[in-house]
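Hey, I'm writing a tutorial for new members on how sequence and structure tokens pair up, and I'd like a real worked example in the thread rather than a made-up one. If someone can provide the structure for the chain below, I'll link this post from the tutorial.
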Amino acid sequence: MKQKIEVFADFFQFYLQDEQSDGNLSDSWTSQAVSDMLAVAPGVIGVGTARNMIVPVEIEVLDSKPNDNFDHWDHVTETSLEVPSGRIIIAGCTDYFPEAPRIIVEPGTYRVRVYYNALDSVDESRLEGDDYYKVVLWLDANIVEPQVLKRWASM
């Protein structure tokens, strides 16, 4: 399953959240999380963005871990997300969640890998650019802490 959407990344972030979660990232955006461009709380992931504007996001659900290299990506992060409802909301932090896009998945624990591209294309206003975000998920019962697999050189 692959889906492309546009998300309003207000406050330089968007969320992936289990539909039944009351996850709150307010204490999760530590200085390390901002640097990593990834914040995590139970049932929710916050993806940091380079722009405070509408950003393109591609979501892909795979059957297994991708076998890829990161040469064409600026920054790559990975963590786990528990999705007991089988419905993942993709939304900006100020979006109205009942109307936000969703993807339907098998209930379970997912590994989530976030790829960030063209981060250097964002202008000084941080409103214009060609940055692009890809989120890949696959079932994986092994819960992992947030990690940076490739760090953007400008961080």
